[in-house]
Amino acid sequence: MRLTADLLDVPVLITGSAVAARRTVRRYRAAGAQVRTIDCPAHFVTGTLDEVRVVVAVDDGDPGWAPLAAACRLHNVLLVREQAALPGRNVTLVGGGPGPADLMTSRALAALAEADVVFYDRLGPAAELDLLAPGAELVDVGKTPGHHRVPQEEIERLMVASAHRGHRVVRLKGGDPFVFGRGGEEVAACVAAGIPVTVVPGISSAISVPAAAGIPVTHRNVSHSFTVVSGHAPLSTAEHTSLAGLAAAGGTIVVLMGIGTLPHLVAGLLRSGLAATTPAAVIERGYSRDQRTTNTELGNMVTATATCSNPAVLVIGAVAALGANSATTAEMNRLAAAMLHP
Ligand code: SAH
Question: What is the per-residue pLDDT across 240-280, written as a single tens digit (0 to 9) for each?
């Protein structure tokens, strides 16, 4: 049974040790309740329940709380029981998926529900965090327009310091933590500081955002491989060979963070021999209400996508023609047949 209660200005007494009750206290405060706490049964005296409408008993294992239930019944006070917050001092890197909360894993949701602190940025399900992590302090470390983002080293320092204080720390990242998310660096920082760290994978935008536009990154007989590249760290030193390799591989090319460097990439791919008629698509703001797909061809891609902005996923390759507008089975089969019997 799941109930939603209006707790604004309701006098609530939370019992249980400070460590066990920490998340409960934050949750009830966030809901606007007038929270009082007592952290050991010896502090429970006559009069404690005067003016109280709800008692939240956090089970900290102390048998001294046993008379509380009877006292609540006597005073006609609602008694709610809760589990103690699990011990902290750890970090969980959580993949937030491409945006909607229901595209996160159950394990990701459980980690958020148990979190004391959540460090998040703008991608992933940031808007719903107060519901998903009601007991947590929410810290925005992301880039917001016009503001500088918190530098990576500072994020790592904050995470480690918070875990050292005994908190369960969640670092929420868009998509999957290990796909262009600097997740590896954050794991390394925790390991170096002796903080236990785990990673909960997420649905990467590299696969899911094309899917939101009806584009399969592989399709039998059309494309049997896909390569995910970042436009942010353009293929530089060995660039020419890398681009030639990408072009020669013949699979789907998926580009994240690619809007800014798109002209550069397109020119390079054309130079490397990819046909100007190669289908291409740009999917902006996948899974949001203003998701938009632009279908084009490599040769026209720069002009056709002039108004596109980040966040966007770029798809270059035959599968890009299989978008939502044309993604009928017949179309896919026609394309597959054309590849098989040119
Ligand atoms: N770790 C993330 C990627 C981080 S890089 C993942 O696995 O998805 C950030 C880039 O991801 C954005 O610039 C954009 O290219 C892409 N991206 C993430 N979410 C997106 C969304 N909902 N719609 C479009 N692009 C998205």
Answer: 667 888 888 889 999 999 999 999 999 999 999 999 999 99
* The predicted structure's pLDDT at residue 325: 52
Same domain, 71 and 111: no
Which atom of ligand 1 lies closest to the CA of 178? 1
Nearest to 281 by CA among 299, 301, 265: 301
Ligand 1 centroid to residue 263 C-alpha, Å? 19
Best mutation site among 256, 282, 288, 293 for ligand 1, i.e. most ligand atoms within 8 A of its Cβ?
A: 256
Last residue of a domain, one of 63, 83, 103: 83
| Domain extent at residue 134 | 90-203
- Residue that is last in its domain, among 172, 203, 234: 203
Do 98 and 196 lie in a common domain?
yes
- Write out pLDDT tens, residues 122-144: 777 777 898 899 889 999 998 65
Q: Closest Cα to residue 167, out of 176, 158, 175? A: 158
Q: Quick check: 342 pLDDT over 90?
A: no
215 in the same domain as 295: yes
Q: Do 116 and 76 sit in the same domain of this protein?
A: no
Same domain, 77 and 120: no
Q: Which residues are catalytic?
A: 121, 143
Number of other CB atoms surrounding residue 194 within 10 Å: 10
What's the pLDDT at 244? Answer: 85
Question: Hey, is 114 helix, strand or coil?
Answer: coil
Task: Kindly state if the Cβ of 98 falls inside 6 Å of ligand 1.
Answer: yes
Q: pTM here?
A: 0.82
Q: Does some domain include residue 185?
A: yes
103 lines ligand 1 (CB under 6 A): no
Cβ atoms of residues 225 and 338 within 8 Å? no
Task: Report the residue among 121, 187, 205 best suited for mutation to probe ligand 1: largest number of ligand atoms under 8 A from its CB.
Answer: 205
